[in-house]
Design a protein that fits this description.
By secondary structure, the chain is mainly α. The protein is built from 8 helices and no strands. The two termini are 34 Å apart.
């Protein structure tokens, strides 16, 4: 018998492949993540589908995945990028959810460090986007270089410096650090 209530315990990776723990709303504790009653759940078309398929934890566990719910999903972002949903789900499926979580916990530590040392105004959205899209090893190198190079700078200078470094590094990797605003 299928339990008709949407249940989630994983607050790092959502059912559909979003990295909830790297979302500005989640970090600011204005969203409870991928669970019933959260901001995201109220507008989600995939959560009800999960219930219909036996409360699966991740879409990749469904025999119908990759279904039409994912058509064009990477073209529209909310406060968190949707660009890597399919890629991240595939990665979690391939390396296992525990290994994927280890990587996400490292990214969570990185975003917390960036926000504590470099954040000004609304730049947290940009920083969350960068951490979401760049690889852990690249982020560690950027942080190491920025921490060393910005020791004597004030907050605005530090923030401008790391923003520039993230942009430049992303450009080398052909990653665009801008949220998609188009509708899918």
């Amino acid at each position: 018998m299928i339990n008709k209530k949407f249940k989630r315990t994983d607050l790092l990776l959502s059912l559909c492949g979003l990295n909830c723990s790297l979302c500005p709303m989640f970090i600011e504790k204005r969203c409870a993540g991928c669970r019933e009653g959260s901001t995201c759940y109220l507008t989600c078309t995939i959560a009800p589908c999960s219930i219909e398929h036996g409360n699966i934890d991740y879409c990749f566990e469904c025999e119908e995945y990759l279904c039409d719910k994912y058509d064009g999903i990477e073209l529209h972002d909310s406060l968190i990028t949707h660009r890597n949903q399919k890629k991240d789900l595939q990665k979690a499926k391939t390396i296992g959810i525990e290994n994927y979580h280890k990587e996400q916990l490292e990214k969570k530590e990185i975003i917390n460090h960036i926000l504590n040392r470099y954040n000004i105004a609304n730049r947290h959205i940009f920083f969350c986007l960068a951490v979401n899209l760049l690889e852990v090893d690249d982020l560690k190198q950027i942080l190491k270089d920025c921490d060393e190079s910005t020791k004597d700078m004030d907050l605005k200078e530090r923030s401008d410096y790391i923003k520039h470094e993230l942009y430049e590094f992303a450009k080398k990797r052909n990653i665009i650090l801008k949220l998609n605003t188009g509708r899918y």
